Amino acid sequence: MDLIKYVQEKYIEQKKWPDFKAGDTITVTYMIKEGDKTRPQSFKGVVIQRRGSGATETFTIRKMSGEIGVERIFPINAPSISSIEVNKRGKVRRARIFYQRQRMGKAARIKEKRM
Question: Which CATH number belongs to the domain containing residue 52 in this structure?
Fold first, then answer.
């Protein structure tokens, strides 16, 4: 077990992103490949959860596209992610806010945390 942690710390590139947690609204800009070209694409939504630790940590973002909810899971150390920007800090009382999936419209709003 210690060998695995050593290899993860030593050889897997750890990127420095701003601190964010469940309830925060963030914009993730990542590179997508179309044929032989790459271009940046943004995904803006609410963080539903963060899970895992170290090199295998992931986070899930949910956004509404029309009336359809779209969720995307990103590895925190994915080489395709070029930037993460925190737009709003949300005030929630739990680490995984899956109850947002059942909410629509005004009921889905998250209070903004005051600084």
Answer: 2.30.30.790
